[in-house]
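Lab manual, section 2.4: Encoding a predicted structure.

Procedure: take the sequence of the chain (155 residues), apply the prediction step described in section 2.3, and record the output as structure tokens. A sample record is shown.
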Amino acid sequence: MSMKRRTFLKGALASGAVAATAGLMPRLVFAEGAKAPAGFDAKTYDDALKAVSGGAEVTESPAIAIKVPDIAENGSVVPIQINAELPKIESIAILVEKNPVPLIANFKFAENGVGYISTRIKMGGTSNVVALVKSDGKYFSVKKEVKVTVGGCGG
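Recorded output:
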């Protein structure tokens, strides 16, 4: 009986390891025929910005506060907070200019949503981090340079 139990446990552990490894592989999964949301397939900062904003004019705004460390000791885990004191916030996107995939996230807000997010991002190296806020149909931004001492995206 114990031999069958060991065989079962070995198989279960091997299956679990394969499943766990598969879960670590980053990928976007969509229904058949569906496309990635605008900007997530962009390879350059300008293309991602254009995809998210639809090519609309983007104005820098002091009403947006971005809190991110000046120096990130580990690019794999960079904490970020964005607080937008603008009316009728529709979305907040996070972009990292020099990342291989510059669009990190694009948060959509309900009609009565508060323009605040807090998360962690991954950076491949020293770069500008940009918060792009859509408010009342217009786009506003703020950016801050973050120096990365240990690589994140690139290793």
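Check your result against the sample. Strands lie at 58-60, 64-67, 71-72, 78-84, 89-96, 103-108, 116-121, 127-135, 138-148.
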